[in-house]
Write a structure and sequence with these properties.
single chain, 220 residues, alpha/beta, Rossmann fold, 7 helices
């Protein structure tokens, strides 16, 4: 499986986009919300939304053709607890998360994000301090953030950022540095492919603690 990288710092992807609120996205907006950042083609969420109708599932993705294809398949399946949106998560999600009703966000997943290996490209990584602060502010204590990747260079900076924030903790008993099992009901396509090749998957599950949301770097 070949990754098709998109530069999130391009002028087009830096444009502000107003994302619809849950009431405009889901038939039953009051359900707990699972936010999957970087959902790609969306087949993981298409399967999960059918298996877990007790939650709404929102996938956001920076590649518009993948979002269009996923939405077409969602509509064909008649799923009203699932939506896909085109956006640059690092730019467009912060205000949307801030506007969520308290306690609505139940789970955030970032799975197999595009790896950016060069130091000068670190600003292209999806989980930046402002987005993490917005996630932490929207997650109630005990709610979860799940990260996984097959590339150490992609997940290690995310782990370092989350743990330095002070807003999250790993469940008691979870192995370090990496969790052995996926806590979700289904694997992603990338996860299935990587494991079929006998390659490792690096996973970390976090739970929101009672600390105040972290302050993004550069904000005082």
């Amino acid at each position: 499986m070949v990754r098709q990288h998109v530069n999130p710092l391009s002028s087009f992807h830096q444009l502000p986009r107003c994302l619809p609120p849950p009431a405009e996205l889901f038939a039953t907006a009051e359900l707990p919300l699972h936010l999957d950042i970087g959902c790609a083609r969306g087949r993981f969420l298409l399967a999960l939304a059918q298996q877990d109708p007790t939650r709404n599932h929102l996938g956001v993705e920076i590649r518009r053709p993948l979002v269009d294809a996923a939405e077409t398949e969602r509509l064909a399946a008649g799923l009203t607890n699932l939506r896909f949106l085109f956006c640059n998560a690092t730019i467009n999600l912060q205000d949307w998360l801030q506007a969520l009703p308290p306690g609505r966000l139940a789970l955030v997943t970032i799975q197999f994000p595009d790896p950016w290996f060069k130091q000068k490209h670190r600003k292209r990584q999806v989980l930046q301090p402002p987005l993490l602060a917005a996630i932490a502010a929207a997650l109630a204590p005990g709610r979860e953030l799940f990260l996984q990747s097959d590339v150490l260079g992609a997940i290690e900076p995310m782990v370092a950022l989350v743990e330095a924030s002070g807003g999250f903790e790993r469940p008691t008993g979870d192995a370090r540095p990496w969790r052995a099992a996926n806590p979700l009901a289904l694997p992603t396509e990338r996860e299935t492919y990587v494991q079929s090749q006998g390659l490792p998957v690096y996973r970390v599950l976090y739970r929101r603690n009672h600390a105040p949301p972290p302050i993004p770097l550069g904000v005082r």
